[in-house]
Amino acid sequence: MNDYDEDFATPDSPTLVEMWKHQVVLMTNEAEYLNTELLKARQNIAKLVAINAQLADQLRGVRSADNLAPSNLWESALPAIERTALENPGAAHFTAPPRP
Questions:
Q1: Burial status of residue 75 (CB atoms within 10 A of its CB: 0-12, 13-18, 19 or more)
Q2: 46-73: per-residue pLDDT in tens?
């Protein structure tokens, strides 16, 4: 018999069921914490997307005042991407058209 088996049989050691119950409590607490952090991260992403949309609107206003066209397809696709992100801020990721 090894030391582990001898220690496991002592009267003050937890039973296998007690250890599993404790592990369940630990994992449940960790899952709740991670869900809270994920919610905060999604809210922060939604705020950043809204800020980006405002800045993009300002940039479009400056460009239209100077009669400049978007320099590439990527910049012209930004409004559609921003609208999608604002409509669904809890989405895990955002897809964008490929760069030319």
A1: middle
A2: 999 999 999 988 888 877 766 555 555 5
